[in-house]
What we know:
Elements: H1 11-20, H2 26-35, H3 37-43, H4 56-69, H5 73-76, H6 83-96, H7 98-113, E1 120-129, E2 138-139, E3 147-155, E4 161-168, H8 176-182, E5 195-198, H9 205-213, E6 217-220, H10 235-245, H11 248-251, H12 258-281
Helix pairs in contact: 4-6, 7-12
Amino acid sequence: MLDHLGSCLRASDVKESLRARTPTLPHRTDLGTALCFTARAEDRSSTWLPPTRIPDRVVFEKLVEVLVFGCAYWRIADEGCSATTLRRRRDEWIEAGVMDELREMALEAYDRLLGLELADLAVDCCITKAPCGGEMAGRSPVDRGKRGIKRSMVVDACGIPLKIVIAPVNHHDSPLLADTLNTLQRLGELPDRAGVNLDRAYDSHATRQKLAARELRAEISEKGKPAPVTATKRWVVERTSSWHNAHKKLVWRTERKGRVVDFWIAFSNVIIIVRRLIRRAWTSYRWESRPRRKP
């Protein structure tokens, strides 16, 4: 039937096609042996080396970009450094306390070269968003119940960030004052009758008692009276908060773990302190890589 002249298939072609589609079962065992891990390990040469570790400088520059732009890790990653490497190296530095030590080194260098002005301190809080929730996040009373966190910060008279306390956004500013001032114990003794400049949210008898117990002079704006921020010494803490908010990783916090939040805040403090150190030292010191113009 398939051998007539009008047929496009012949019996010989059908046999060849069937023979070609015959399953090759004997070769499957050889294929599995070739693909197994043991066989691949035996075929490796003796000169095989593990992948080289990406330098810390490359990872540090990538994390600076993540801090400034506030974007996801995979958007900054490239062929030279993956997002997994950024997260893994970040966790390694958190466990080792690298960023906290770097912040203390930058603060000590600033105090040694220029000197911290601790006679007039300023304390204030700043609210930022935390859409992913997580630790330290709370429902905001001023943003329709959305998630957020609050930074309670103390700075010196020039706006250098000394310490920052993180709390949920639904905590009032006044109760956070004691925890914020307690962090100054690591700096040593403060000058006699040092002043603390506060806004009207701290205007209460309890706040004045807390400052008096620490022998600190209270400079608090009174409720119901206009007090422009430029008329007091409190404007420096507002400026420092704007410097922090220039780092978008702190404005739109997507990290859920508290230790990661502390890492990024310490990272931001390091950048702010180093930049202020270079700017103020430009008028007092000279060094080889000193820029020609004031930074």
